[in-house]
Structure formats: C-alpha cells, structure tokens
Design goal:
alpha/beta, Aspartate Aminotransferase, domain 2, 7-stranded mixed β-sheet, 4-stranded antiparallel β-sheet, 15 helices
Length: 415
C-alpha cells in the first residue's frame, strides 16, 4: 500500500466532501425505515412498460447511432425538443445555446470548472442545495450565504469591497431544495438588476420548476433576463426518470462553447441511447401526460404530509408549505438540536436529512429537510406521526418547550 496517500492527492481532492445524503441512504434502506431523507422520485411512476416498447423501437430502427458515441453537445433532436418547450414560455434560444449534460449535477460541475479558481467566491442561499455546495468545495471556492434576496446587494458590496467579487450567484428559484420556497417575481427582478449592475452571472438551478401543484407560474430568471447573464440548468431526473442521467444547460453561446470543451474532458458525451429513448417518448406525445401524472401524485403526497404535520406536530415546530417540488423544511425551537433528534427519530424508524448540511455557514442546527415524493401517502402520514413523537421525546429530554406557531405559508417564510 502506498504510504501517506493523502499527501499525494490533489488539493482539490482533499477538499472534496462526501455526500451526507448518500451516506444516510445506506442507513435508511434498512427494513421498516420510513425515509424522508433522499430526494427520490417515486418508482411506481416510472413509465416502465412504455419504455420497454420504445427501447425495442430504438434498437430495431436506430441501433447503429443509439449504441455509438455521440456529439458532446447532445442529440440534436432532443435539444430541439427542449428549445420548443422553452419557446412556449416566450424564451427565444437556438441550438448554440443548449447542451445536453449527464443530469444537472454535471452542469453544476461544468459551471464550477469553467468559472471557479481556488479561493473564488460564490453567493448562494441559506440554505442551499447540498451537492452544489460539495462541488464548490471541491473547487476550493468560498460560498457566501444570504437568507433573503433583500440581503443580496449588501452582501455583494461587502464582498467587492473585500476584493472578493463573486464569480456567480447560485439560486434555485422554484420550490427550492431544501426549503421548498419560491422566489417572488419582485425577488427575481431584484436579483437580475443586481446581476446586471455588478456584471455577475446568475446560475439558475431549475430541477423542480415544472413540478408545480398550485398557484401561478412565475417567469424564470432566464426568461426575465434576455441579456446573457443567466445560466439555466434543467434535468429529466425529477420530471421523467433519474436513471437516464440526462439534463441540460441553457446559456449564452460563449458559455456553451466553454461548457462543451469542459464536458469533453469529463465523459465525451451523455448516453446517446438514453437521449434517443427520451426523444422518442416526446415524439409519441407521452411526456406531458406523464408529467401531469407525476404532479398529481406528488400533490396528494404533499397534502397528506402537510395534513399530518398540522395534526400531529407539537407547538414550537414550524414548516414551509411548498407549492411544488419534492421537499419541505422544518424548524425546531432554537433550543433543540436536529442531530439529537435524528438519533431519536431512527429509534422510531423514521429518517430525515439534517438542515445544517445545507447551510454553508454552519447554521441551521435546529432544521431538517423532509421529502414527500418517495414514500406513499400512508407512509408520509405515519412517518410524520413517528417524527412528532421523536420531537416530543427530545423536548422532554431537554426539559425545554419551544415557542412559535404551527405551519407557515411559503410566502411568509423568510429566505
């Protein structure tokens, strides 16, 4: 065995952090555990039988190309399909503005590779997507967190004064992971105004945007921009199937050019076979109906979880009420520690993810993220009952009772 391997690893490699969620999933796969931990789509919603037919069709009619290497930018037909969907939102873009990636996680990695040097600063939300924070850490970047868009200008001024002008602003505007909250139109306009004024790109991570259960859709940052300041990331993982590992990056052509070069050094191209199957699923006119089926199922699961929270959670616990997506966020009284709760919850055979892991500044120790898409409606209700019992036990053990209301609407949640 090589001695002192750590000394041989690159500084980037030694900056990498393991995924708390991936490690946690090993525990939550035990029999009897109700897991709210992962951001997993419901497998019973995968269109398995139709995909069997389409897979056979692709192999019968297009195997020579489907099983071959493809263009780094992705299959032209699939990119055209995505562009037509954007055009329905009023977004005018061309093939030069879009590249297919190996899911949106690769898009985050690519953007980080082409923008970040060690020591660079990224502005992100508090809390923010854990895997994005991991990617920034792997590049040895320094994230600076904001809880509300109203704090963005002061944060930018402070960082610029310290000679730490951010390379980009990372936002998840719709049904954010982990909080489930959504940026208002005014907040989006404010973020864009500041991006334009300070000449800083915005990375708009939009994996959940199409999973809206209620309310009126708000224009995307890309749609509102029109100047090339916004880089939008999309994925089929939450709105189709995650196993295909397909996503896309929509941006100014100069960014796409750099992204293409970066992707060539990573995997040459995303799976052509998966792209062909996905495109044919669209061609059959099946995508929109399948998406509506997913939305309907997740709406029911969210409602079951919110109803259980309203009925069973003790006083002092608050939570967001997302209008879409996969997650909601709980806050315990500040005297309680979610790490202690996690162990108590496991004894009740229910699991969640610590909210602290989503905070780049180490805050959020009394918070937790729970997912409502993976488990059944019945399991969502039972899991909340178990979680509430664990919280009551923790409250008794600490001897302190928190103060506060019950659930709070997403519009009133401070970001």
């Amino acid at each position: 065995m090589i001695q002192n391997l750590t000394a041989l690893f690159s500084e980037n490699a030694n900056s990498m952090q393991s995924s708390t969620i991936r490690e946690l999933l090993k525990i939550t796969q035990q029999p009897g555990i109700i897991s709210f931990a992962g951001g997993l789509p419901a497998p019973d919603l995968f269109p398995v039988e139709i995909l069997k037919e389409i897979t056979a069709e692709v192999l019968d009619s297009d195997s020579a190309q489907a099983l071959q290497y493809g263009a780094t930018e992705g299959e032209k037909h699939l990119r055209e399909i995505l562009l037509r969907r954007y055009q329905k939102e009023g977004i005018q873009a061309a093939l030069k503005n879009i590249i297919i990636t190996t899911a949106s996680q690769q898009s985050i990695d690519i953007i980080s590779r082409i923008f970040l040097n060690p020591g660079d600063t990224v502005v992100c939300e508090l809390p923010s997507y854990l895997a994005a924070l991991q990617t920034f850490a792997a590049c040895r970047a320094q994230p600076a967190g904001i809880r509300q868009i109203s704090q963005l200008e002061a944060t930018l001024k402070k960082l610029i004064a310290e000679n730490r002008k951010p390379k980009f602003i990372y936002l998840i505007p719709d049904f954010q992971n982990p909080s489930g909250t959504t940026l208002s139109l005014d907040e989006r306009i404010t973020a864009l105004r500041l991006a334009h004024h300070y000449n800083i790109p915005i990375v708009e991570d939009a994996p959940y945007r199409e999973l809206r259960f209620e309310g009126t859709p708000i224009p995307s940052l890309y749609q509102l921009d029109g100047t090339g300041h916004v880089i939008t990331l999309g994925t089929f993982s939450k709105i189709f199937v995650p196993g295909f590992r397909l996503g896309w990056l929509l941006a100014h052509e100069d960014i796409i050019t750099k992204a293409t070069i970066a992707k060539q050094s990573i995997d040459l191209c995303s799976p052509v076979f998966d792209q062909k199957i996905t495109a044919r699923f669209f061609d059959r006119g099946l995508f929109e109906g399948n998406l509506q089926k997913i939305i309907h199922a997740y709406r029911q699961k969210r409602d079951a979880m919110l109803d259980a929270l309203d009925r069973h959670m003790p006083e002092g616990v608050t939570w967001t009420r997302p209008q879409g997506g996969l997650f909601l966020f709980l806050s315990l009284p500040e005297t309680m520690d979610a790490k202690e709760l996690f162990q108590l919850a496991l004894r009740q055979n229910v699991a969640f993810v610590l909210g602290e892991d989503f905070h780049c500044d180490g805050s959020g120790k009394n918070t937790l993220r729970i997912n409502f898409s993976y488990m059944s409606r019945e399991q969502n209700e039972e899991g909340i009952i178990r979680l509430a019992n664990a919280i009551k036990t923790l409250r008794e053990e600490t001897g302190k009772r928190g103060k506060g209301g019950k659930g709070e609407e997403v519009e009133t949640v401070k970001r």
